[in-house]
Amino acid sequence: MFRTLRYKWPTPKSLLFGAGVRGLHSTKPLLTFNLSAEQKCRELLDSFKDYDHIFQNEDGSSRKPPEEELKKIAYLNSYAGRRNLGIVEAFSLPKEHERLYSANDRDLAKLKASSGLIIDKIPYEDTATGEIKWKIVREGDQKEGWENIAHYLFVPGCIALLVAIIWRDDMDVSEWARRELLYRVRSKAEKDNDTAVLDTFEKYGNPESYEFDYVGFQKDDQVIVERILSGEYDRLAKLRRRAHQD
Q1: Which domain of life is it from (predicted)?
Q2: What is the pLDDT tens value at each position of the chain, 246 positions in all?
Q3: Is residue 123 within a helix (H) or strand (E), and if so which, with residue range?
């Protein structure tokens, strides 16, 4: 007799951490949340009475923190750059650990903003040597609004335009020039209420649009050609009169 095998269905937790399922890695992954480090961070943050008056007094005068306080700030600035919490781990943390991490994250941001907006140098701890060094910052070390716009909108727009110009081979320069000339004729006809020209464009479409019947227009463009030539003669006549006056 063969003994029947009982299959153990995977649970959501086992799928996330690879525990209790045959074929998945059985070792528990290394989590980035460090409870003791977060508790120490909370203790140091609570030692500051007011994050807004670390480098500045309430009357607006500059304040020089003592050496012990600078060491705390240096450690917190260094720790803030090292701490990282993944999405999967964030959902798996107990509620009290999640609240601790969120509170530390919020207060560390306040501490950085307070340091960056008031002074040009903030202390940090060099993890390799353990000594305190100074980091240069200017107004929170943030870019101006127009720089972000240029980075996220203007540059991609220029790239998209360049790609469109390279790959759009359905209109050469000469056709574009003809369409531009027809557009000017139509604009002048709208100002002069030239019904003959407007009726012609009504028949073949907008010269700026790709739906414009350019082939059909070339077979029946006497009215437009006449207006173009008359417009050029008028322009030349004005130039001649101006030359005689000079």
Answers
A1: Eukaryota
A2: 444 444 444 454 444 444 444 344 443 444 478 888 899 999 999 988 887 777 777 776 777 788 888 888 888 888 888 887 777 777 788 888 888 988 998 888 888 766 654 445 567 777 788 787 776 554 444 444 444 555 556 667 777 777 666 655 555 556 666 677 777 777 877 888 877 777 777 777 776 666 666 666 666 566 666 666 665 545 544 544 555 565
A3: strand 121-125
DSSP state, residue 54:
S
Bridge partner residues of 135 (DSSP)? 122
Taking CA atoms, 48 is separated from 25, 70, 106, 110, 225, in Å, by 44, 11, 14, 12, 82
Q: How far apart are CA 75 and CA 44, in angstroms?
A: 9
CA separation for the pair 235, 238 (Å, rounded): 5
Task: Determine the residue type at 109.
Answer: A
List residues bridging with 124 in a β-sheet. 133
Name the phi and psi angles at 134, rounded to 5: -115, 135
Give the E-state strand segments of the chain in sequence order. 121-125, 132-136
Sign of CA dihedral 170, 174, 180, 184: negative
CA distance 48 to 158: 48
Instruction: Answer yes or no: are the C-beta atoms of 194 and 227 closer than 8 Å.
Output: yes
Q: Residue holding tokens 């029947």? A: 4
Residue pair 135/77 in contact (Cβ under 8 Å)? The answer is yes
